[in-house]
């Protein structure tokens, strides 16, 4: 049986037809635990035979519809009725007075990891050989939801489906996007899905990126950080992340990964958005200390603040953190500082920086 080489999925249909699970089945024993055990073993043996055949199957990547395969999969997931005799009745009476027990295979394999994995692998093989024409994704996700330990195998099988067999993962997207797991293999699946034009600008992807950013702000996580940095490599996704982070508070921005902080500071400086938060002195100083390339942008903020006598104190605080301004920066700053030389409260500080930045002094 296991030596057969099947090269077309149509050749398997007769085997599937023969192995479809009955809605009702009779046992000659009365011990319910033993009945359940025998039933599970029987279904598992059938499934193993089919799975081995499918592993040896190659097909073209077309939608291969098969009502027979559909029926078999449905039979696996149906609740069946198992009939068995009363243990205390005579044989003739037993035949006339069957006991009945309803059973769903998914409910009784909670302690049978081998069967769980077999079933999951079987579904993935059906996905492969029929190009998901049987729509087994709902059965995959159902068993994964029921048995949490199958999540990691599910992620790995999904990656294999894409990387080894080159199948698209779009049918899995609705399920994957709703997961809250922090998992490197799940994020690899996201990487493959999020870059697709169909999803990259969608609300679901934006919400997921937003959730991950919020989670990272609450608690740093290397897996999340690595994933977000990969997302920055796509222009559209970089734009989405930029839109999200520029709505965050300054206290939140400084907690982001360095690459995303830089993305945020680039945006704020290039679009003169720092002027909208120029009174957040500690944040302005953080941007200034982050990278020297923001120096010109910050000098504009300082010059702007020096136009308003009320904001001179903030300008001087930022100047305390300014390192190595250019000659052009010094000239701009001195011109602005000159206007506040007679400031009632901060004239001493103003004079100090005029002296420090004067062209004569620096030459």
Set down the secondary structure blueprint.
Layout: H1 13-19, E1 24-26, H2 32-55, H3 67-77, E2 79-85, H4 91-96, E3 98-104, H5 113-130, H6 137-146, H7 151-163, H8 173-176, H9 184-194, H10 197-200, H11 203-218, H12 222-231, H13 235-245, H14 250-253, H15 258-270, H16 281-290, H17 295-305, H18 312-319, H19 327-338, H20 347-357, H21 359-362
Parallel strand pairs: 1-2
Antiparallel strand pairs: 2-3
Helix pairs in contact: 1-3, 2-5, 5-6, 5-7, 7-9, 9-12, 11-13, 17-18, 17-19, 19-20
Strand order of the largest sheet: 1-2-3
| Share of residues in helices | 55-70%
Tally of helical segments: 21
Secondary-structure content class: mainly alpha
Distance between the termini: 92 Å
The pLDDT mean sits at: 86
Radius of gyration: 34 Å
Q: State the low-pLDDT regions, or none.
A: 1-7
Question: Any overview of this molecule?
Answer:
60% of the residues lie in helices and 5% in strands. The chain is mainly alpha-helical and 363 residues long. A three-stranded mixed beta sheet has the order 1-2-3. The longest helix has 24 residues, at 32-55. The model is unreliable at 1-7 (pLDDT under 50).
Gist of the model:
The protein is mainly alpha-helical and 363 residues long.
What labels describe this entry?
single chain; three-stranded mixed beta sheet; rod-shaped
